[in-house]
């Protein structure tokens, strides 16, 4: 297996070779392998992406961690291009070819890809996020890959509750949380593109699934890590089109909370000690909670990148739910000014 992976790594790296003949030969070999057996092809890509140890180089030379990271990125792009295409007809055919693979093969591949998010390499993480998002677009609407959203939410939960871990482990868990939120952003962005073509948002992405995304987003926004906040805000930006049910919710009573998955998860995760007090309290509107979290992220005490991402969300909220925002204008005004200042600082150079 290791020898096969080493050969595959060299083949993938050859696609970047400056010599046209070497590059073209590698690309042709990969194309032939994909056309011969798609399942084996994408399975091999997923297996390489999930590796955590460098592979031997040519003629048994010591493995290079840098080569493996580059090969992982190429493998992820190659995988994504094998199950999707820019042309709508070809894209549909590629998705059908994926769906036709044996369920066991697909399950193993998805498990490996989720495991591959446990990396502190931003480039590899982003590449894998795009693959998982594409699989989500293909499968979620047909009630498959149901474990994707809960798995991503759990990664965010681990990222925001890792204070007791050693520093190196904390850094890895934070990176995983950022990857998870990035994956949610990619997924919601692609699904939002489908909505822009005229489909009903609730038919594309259910309120129940949107609740999972919003739970992960709000967990990320409450974490002090600026990069986690930015990733959460980007996910929220693309998820807003699917959050109409949350923005239109009236105040929830105590009994409503126990019946509302989104509200219950937020309270349990962010305020576990206060859960019992809800017998005598009322939970804020979901809309309040979301908007207030974005407003807090846009505060001047946060880094410029967080402020700018918060401002983008405020603009998107205004576009989607303008009729509901009159009560929030006094709070949004100062945030817009601070975010504009943050944007100028971020783009000063």
From TrEMBL:
GO MF annotation: an example: small GTPase binding
**Key words, A-Z:** Cytoplasm, Protein transport, Repeat, Transport
Domain of life according to the entry: Eukaryota
Instruction: From the UniProt record, give one GO term of the biological process aspect.
Output: protein import into nucleus
One Pfam family in the UniProt entry: IBN_N
InterPro entries, per database record: ARM-like (IPR011989), ARM-type_fold (IPR016024), Importin-beta_N (IPR001494), Importin_beta (IPR040122)
Quote the SMART domains the UniProt record gives: IBN_N
> Where, by residue number, does the polypeptide cross the bilayer?
none
Which is one Gene Ontology cellular component term of this protein? cytoplasm
Q: Which Gene3D superfamilies match?
A: Leucine-rich Repeat Variant
Write down what this protein is called.
Importin subunit beta-1, putative
């Amino acid at each position: 297996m290791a020898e096969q992976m080493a050969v595959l790594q060299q083949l993938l790296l050859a696609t970047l070779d400056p010599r046209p003949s070497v590059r073209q030969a590698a690309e042709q070999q990969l194309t032939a392998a994909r056309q011969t057996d798609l399942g084996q092809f994408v399975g091999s890509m997923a297996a390489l992406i999930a590796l955590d140890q460098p592979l031997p180089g040519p003629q048994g030379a010591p493995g290079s961690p840098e080569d493996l990271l580059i090969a992982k990125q190429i493998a992820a792009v190659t995988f994504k291009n094998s199950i999707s295409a820019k042309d709508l007809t070809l894209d549909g055919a590629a998705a059908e070819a994926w769906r036709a693979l044996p369920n066991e093969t697909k399950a193993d591949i998805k498990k490996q890809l989720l495991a591959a998010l446990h990396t502190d390499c931003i480039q590899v993480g982003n590449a894998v996020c795009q693959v998982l998002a594409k699989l989500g677009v293909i499968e979620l609407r047909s009630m498959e890959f149901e474990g994707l959203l809960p798995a991503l939410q759990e990664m965010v939960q681990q990222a925001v509750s890792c204070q007791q871990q050693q520093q190196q482990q904390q850094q890895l868990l934070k990176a995983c949380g950022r990857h998870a939120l990035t994956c949610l952003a990619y997924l919601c962005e692609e699904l939002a593109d489908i909505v822009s073509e005229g489909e009903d948002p609730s038919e594309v992405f259910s309120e129940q699934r949107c609740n999972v995304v919003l739970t992960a987003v709000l967990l990320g926004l409450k974490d002090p890590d600026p990069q986690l906040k930015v990733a959460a805000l980007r996910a929220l930006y693309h998820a807003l089109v699917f959050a109409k049910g949350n923005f239109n919710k009236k105040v929830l009573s105590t009994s409503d909370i126990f019946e509302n998955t989104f509200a219950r998860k937020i309270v349990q995760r962010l305020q576990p000690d206060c859960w019992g007090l809800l017998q005598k309290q009322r939970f804020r509107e979901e809309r309040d909670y979301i908007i207030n979290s974005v407003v807090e992220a846009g505060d001047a005490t946060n880094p410029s990148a967080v402020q700018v991402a918060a401002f983008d969300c405020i603009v998107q909220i205004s576009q989607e739910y303008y009729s509901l925002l009159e009560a929030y204008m006094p709070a949004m005004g100062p945030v817009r000014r601070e975010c504009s200042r943050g944007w100028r600082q971020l783009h000063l150079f």
